[in-house]
């Protein structure tokens, strides 16, 4: 039984191909059902996209099916660019010229060759569903509808003389922001709440042209990574003459990691029958691995803070000792990659402040002190 219904638009000048897609979709895919709308020209399809909301679009590459399209004739690719200027909708190219648009394929744009088995079409649709974007967008639309018509409509009517028009948008924006909290979104997407995904730590890509604490930059001269540690108040009060940066070292270049790799390579070179040497080397490998685990758990020296990797940032370590200042005239040499989101931004700035402001004190003689304590207990 289908319990998720989606609006699909097929754009193709070949009516037979459109009916083929319609028959496949009308049978449903897994627990999804579809309302299929059709446009037999690219211009009509674009007009429908501008006027109506669709969850998924099937798109041909060329309207002239009588000959191979030449450069500049791929109207489907042009329509995709026009669509991208109007709204976000996942697209599946269903075409006899798959090679012409294969370079456009991504997690939200799929390419299926006409004449492919039905399973290829179904799998392309499944791949789009796996992103969960369609569910998320429908959730946002439904929450907006419910809030405006079922929750505050009567209140706004009763208090219309007291509410400023722009405050309605502010109310809705705050409601949506709450509904899109990590917990709500994870429930919607069937993601465990027990652990975070590293992506939840970052804002990517971050706002261009604005510098904030815990922004991560790339030095374009050598592709090294750097984190901004200048306090937010200095940016807010325009007091920043030089931006303070801490170097971010890829984990595989950190000394503890290279030591671990060296110990592992040394272990692998030992002859199998040399049990004693093998055992000693194995212990060294285990110790080195333990130090890396401690670093990754952020339980190593206060000097270091580990950052888990994503598709845009490798596993890496912020080193609070490797600092430099960046004058304004050098800004063009750096490109902003991403920013740490709250509360991780505050955590890193607090860790740096704690490390940099630490006060060293002489150690007392532990053995002498413990001897006195132990004597009292045993006497």
Report on this structure.
The chain is an alpha/beta fold. It has three domains: 4-131, Rossmann fold, CATH 3.40.50.2300; 135-188, no CATH class; 202-356, Roll (SH3 type barrels), CATH 2.30.30. It is 44% helix and 19% strand. It has 14 helices and twelve strands. The strands form two sheets. Strands 6-12-7-8-9-11-10 form a seven-stranded antiparallel β-sheet, covered by helices on one side. It has a five-stranded parallel β-sheet with strand order 2-1-3-4-5. α1 links the parallel β1 and β2 (32-39). α6 (133-151) crosses α8 and α11 (255-269) packs antiparallel against α12 (275-296). It is extended, with a radius of gyration of 29 Å. The N and C termini lie far apart (79 Å). The model has no long low-confidence stretch (mean pLDDT 87).
Describe this protein with a few key phrases.
single chain, 379 residues, alpha/beta, Rossmann fold, SH3 type barrels, 3 domains, seven-stranded antiparallel β-sheet, five-stranded parallel β-sheet, 44% helix, extended
């Amino acid at each position: 039984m289908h319990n998720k219904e989606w609006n699909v638009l097929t754009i193709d000048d070949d009516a037979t191909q459109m009916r083929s897609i319609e028959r496949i979709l009308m049978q449903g895919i897994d627990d999804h059902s579809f309302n299929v709308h059709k446009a037999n020209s690219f211009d009509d399809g674009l007009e429908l996209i501008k006027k109506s909301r669709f969850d998924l679009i099937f798109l041909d590459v060329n309207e002239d099916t009588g000959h191979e399209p030449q450069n500049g004739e791929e109207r489907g690719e042009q329509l995709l660019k026009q669509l991208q200027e109007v709204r976000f909708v996942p697209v599946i190219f269903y075409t006899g010229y798959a090679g012409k648009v294969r370079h456009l394929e991504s997690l939200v744009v799929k390419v299926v060759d006409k004449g492919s088995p039905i399973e290829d079409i179904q799998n392309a649709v499944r791949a789009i569903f796996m992103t969960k974007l369609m569910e998320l967008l429908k959730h946002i639309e439904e929450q907006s509808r419910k809030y405006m018509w079922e929750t505050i409509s009567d209140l706004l009517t009763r208090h219309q003389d007291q509410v400023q028009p722009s405050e309605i948008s502010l109310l809705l924006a705050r409601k949506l922001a709450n509904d899109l909290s990590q917990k709500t979104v994870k429930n919607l997407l069937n993601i465990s709440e027990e652990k975070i995904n590293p992506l939840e730590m970052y804002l990517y890509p971050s706002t261009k042209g604005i510098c904030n604490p815990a922004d991560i930059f790339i030095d374009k001269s050598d592709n090294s990574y750097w984190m901004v540690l200048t306090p937010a108040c200095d940016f807010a009060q325009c007091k920043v003459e030089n931006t303070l940066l801490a170097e971010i070292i890829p984990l595989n270049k950190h000394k503890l990691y290279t030591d671990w790799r060296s110990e592992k390579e040394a272990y692998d070179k030992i002859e199998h029958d040399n049990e004693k040497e093998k055992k000693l080397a194995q212990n060294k490998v285990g110790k080195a691995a333990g130090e890396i685990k401690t670093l990754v758990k952020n339980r190593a020296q206060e000097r270091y803070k580990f950052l888990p990797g994503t598709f845009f940032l490798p596993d890496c370590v912020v080193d609070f000792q490797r600092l430099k200042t960046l004058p304004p005239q050098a800004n063009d040499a750096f490109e902003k990659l991403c920013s740490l989101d709250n509360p991780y931004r505050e955590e890193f700035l607090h860790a740096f402040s704690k490390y940099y402001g630490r006060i060293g004190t002489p150690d007392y003689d532990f053995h002498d002190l413990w001897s006195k304590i132990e004597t009292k207990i045993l006497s």
